[in-house]
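Q: My labmate handed me this sequence with no annotations at all. I'd like to see what the chain might look like in three dimensions before we decide whether it's worth expressing. Could you predict it?
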Amino acid sequence: MQAGNPDSQEAGTLPGGLRLWTNSYVNGAASTFLTTLVTFPIYKTIFRQQLHTVMVQEALQQLHKEGLSKFYRGVLPPLLGKTVQGIVLFGTYDTVLHWMSPQATLNRPQSLYHCSLAGMLSGFIEALVLTPCERVQNVLQDSRKDARLPTIRSILQEFNSYGVGKRLKLGYYRGLFPIIFRNGLGSALYFGFKDPIRDALSEKGLPSWLSSFVSGSVNGMGASLLLYPLSVLITNMQAQVGGEVRSTGHSFRALWESRQGRVSLLYRGGSLVIFRSCITWGLTTAINESLKGK
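A: Here is what I predict for the chain of 294 residues:
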């Protein structure tokens, strides 16, 4: 590119726009780290609902009975996981988007097709990178495992005691297929509609930070409600330690029977998911867009 080309200047001073894409990874990490600290109590309450099929009040009573010393038990894996998620999700998304549209810049509108496809690919990569962290987190937060597997170290020792093949299948990557599907579809929906909703709200006169927050909230809520049954399935599959690894179909049938074939029980915890998703993706999007200067 010529020195006077505006695309070259906008992409950054380093070759290939390296500075701009490096910022994408850093901004993703910062936004998800801060959001996780704020929303972890909500997440833990939802986890108990998904696992034990209890109402919000009963889940809160469980946490209250366990005391403050255990209230943030299990926060390290999601804090680490969500920070890495931000790096992978937002950084990989911008990288893939640039790879598909090398003549475009990250600060210009992209097609819905390119945004959705880049989002799906980043979701796939996110699942491969973060499934072990989600697996440890789900075991750690199951109160039934307190006596046998009370710490991250004890969980890792358990997984590492398996043979090489079982270490992945029974241990770190249990429930991988539904996670890949959930993350890929969820990321495609989020990145595909995030910018169009934000831009439409900005045209209505809303401040940029509020437009970004509402856009992230709407996308997060929609994707979470659509994919919530998968999240319940994943929670129950990954909370298991040892035993036979069941197929995704067999696991879902067992889950459906345990919920008495009722959608209302399958969606137990859904009300908190709406609230958590609105806050989580609203904050993440607003912080990320602010750091990018949008």
